[in-house]
Write a structure and sequence with these properties.
Strand 2 and strand 3 form a beta hairpin. The protein contains 22 helices and twelve strands. By secondary structure, the protein is α/β, with parallel strands linked by helices. The strands form four sheets. The protein has a four-stranded parallel beta sheet with strand order 5-4-9-10, with helices on both faces. A three-stranded antiparallel beta sheet has the order 1-3-2. 54% of the residues lie in helices and 10% in strands.
């Protein structure tokens, strides 16, 4: 309906293009002020007339049609009152189409998203959940808009820390203990190394020697390193399975170690490299940034070099239209430097390299189970949530079938929803009472609303709802408010993609759930009037679909029963 109004206005307004008209159209704050309104203030300067006069002239020029019941001018605003029956019909027919909300805007375009990327041989802690959850949601949002999305897990699997870990293993490691306890044991011996290195600095020299062996291709060094990596990946995969996530590429830093020389060669050819105290840097003073270190004194590369190599490789391999990096805001300068160097190398696609930062995880005084001091493991958080949901289910619905499956869906969903509830730059706080509240603005609340929709449909006794229903029976306030919001689904997805803010989907899902519950409480569905029953069941069907799709864009599943 909004598009129809845009087209109508576009025919009457020559001084502003169609896209600008679409941007200016508003939804009035009160229903009695109309369904859509168009302000004429910006036309006043162009048309050299008072905005009130312009509004009146445009309104008078619009002829009668079947989708607008009335047009009123209030000051500089043209208020459009839609033909409710036609409006309802349009919404329901559109929302009943398969893959409602899907867009073709991304067809034949590729987006690379670099996210999760834990450091091998280190714990996948609660902080890693943020990049993983945000990145996965962006992948789903852009996929819904028709883009081909390449999910990249750029593992931190190279660097001097592996030299330290090899020395630690050689001195204090136990193969059986590492095989049994995985990353936790690797962390234990890594901590042991640092404790001992304070007493004996020669251990640091040994660590540098072992990393040098790795870079030179020493068979023993690489065999131990690969073992550490395999053990780590096994643990990380368990967490990804719990979250229901996967990746298209696990090429980490090690993958680019033989590709960094090409970066150095190009920088030398472009005369961008400068020697500084033995190291090779790209000066960025004129861009108000510290220099980008490319090669250390000993000739070895660092993560910036490998990031530069990764960008060149991804452009060549995937020919991306955008390459998005989901990391903490503390890496803002690093990516600004790397992107600027790519630009200075003569690559105009540098403008399509995007850093998507996020805030920290705040424990907010919560007592969280942990296996190691103050390090909060992601797996522990997820399992705690599942266990707590199972307890709630046993209290609320002890006869529920598939309790374990439902507890997993709701428990994991609650953590994801809590993470994505606010703008990503804000910190995330853990509060179990809030996260697992079935009546608040939470994942369980939205999932419970979905289960309620499913229950209504099961108990209706109706196998198939007619394609055509009596749309005039849905003109009440509660039906209209819900349907209007359902009609915004595509707009919300697009805005979330443009701002790279999954929280817009999260808040939308809560609003749909709230509006449905008001509709459900005010409008009895299982009534004797068959036409009314079918009309209201149709609303339930499309609401159920939109909730499922919205939660899916966040990486959350929906149980049919709770």
């Amino acid at each position: 309906m909004k598009n129809k109004i845009v087209e109508l206005l576009d025919e009457k307004i020559e001084c502003v293009d169609k896209s600008r008209i679409e941007e200016l159209i508003e939804i009035p704050p009160k229903p009695e002020m109309g369904d859509f309104s168009f302000p004429c203030f910006q036309l006043a300067k162009i048309m050299k007339k008072a905005p009130q006069m312009i509004a009146a002239e445009i309104a008078d020029s619009i002829s009668e049609n079947n989708f607008i019941s009335e047009i009123k001018v209030e000051g500089a605003y043209i208020n459009f009152y839609l033909n409710k029956v036609e409006y309802i019909k349009q919404i329901i027919e559109t929302a009943s189409c398969s893959n409602y909300g899907y867009s073709k805007e991304g067809e034949e375009k590729t987006i690379c998203i670099d996210y999760s990327s834990p450091n091998v041989a280190k714990n996948f802690h609660v902080g890693h959940l943020r990049t993983t959850i945000i990145g996965n949601s962006l992948y789903k949002i852009f996929t819904k808009l028709g883009y081909k999305v390449v999910r990249i897990n750029h593992l931190g699997d190279w660097g001097t820390q592996f030299g330290k870990l090899i020395v630690a293993y050689k001195n204090w490691g136990d193969k059986e203990a590492i095989e049994k306890n995985g990353v936790l044991e690797l962390m234990n011996i890594y901590v042991k190394f640092h404790e001992e290195a304070k007493k004996d600095d020669s251990l640091n020299d040994q660590a540098r020697e072992w990393f040098s062996k790795m870079e030179q291709g020493n068979e023993e060094a690489l065999e131990i390193w690969q073992w550490f990596k395999d053990i780590s990946l096994k643990e990380y995969m368990r967490i990804y399975d719990l979250l229901g996530m996967s990746f298209d590429s696990y090429n980490g830093e090690s993958f680019y170690r033989d590709k960094t020389q090409n970066v150095v060669d190009i920088l030398k050819e472009k005369k961008l490299l400068v020697e500084s105290e033995g190291a090779q840097i790209v000066p960025l003073d004129e861009y108000d940034m510290a220099p980008c270190l490319v090669m250390k004194k000993d000739g070895s590369s660092i993560y910036a070099t490998r990031d530069l190599a990764a960008i060149l490789y991804r452009k060549e391999t995937y020919n991306f239209d955008k390459c998005i990096y989901v990391t903490g805001q503390e890496q803002k300068l690093h990516f600004a430097q790397v992107f600027k160097v790519i630009e200075l190398m003569g690559n105009d696609y540098a403008k399509n390299l995007i850093h998507v930062p996020y805030g920290l995880v705040s424990l907010g005084g919560e007592k969280l189970a942990t296996r190691s001091g103050n390090i909060i493991f992601a797996e522990d958080i997820l399992n705690q949530s599942i266990d707590k949901v199972k307890t709630i289910i046993n209290e609320r619905n002890p006869e529920l079938k598939n309790k374990d499956s439902v507890a997993k869906i709701v428990g994991v969903g609650a953590i994801i929803f809590n993470d994505l509830f606010n703008q990503r730059i804000k910190d995330v706080a853990f509060n179990w009472d809030k996260i697992l509240n079935f009546d608040g603005e939470t994942g369980p609340y939205v999932q419970y609303t979905y289960a309620r929709c499913a229950s209504v449909l099961r108990k209706s006794g109706v196998d198939e709802i007619p394609k055509e229903i009596e749309y005039s029976l849905l003109q009440d306030e509660y039906s209209m408010n819900l349907l209007k919001e359902i009609s915004r689904f595509g707009e919300v997805i697009k805005e979330a993609s443009e701002k790279m803010e999954p929280f817009m989907i999260t808040r939308y899902a809560v609003l749909i759930a709230q509006l449905f519950n008001r509709f459900y409480h005010e409008n009895k569905i299982n009534v004797d009037d068959l036409n009314l029953k079918m009309a209201r069941l149709k609303v339930v069907v499309i609401t159920k679909y939109v909730i499922k799709e919205a939660l899916s864009l966040l990486g959350i599943d929906c149980p049919e029963q709770m």
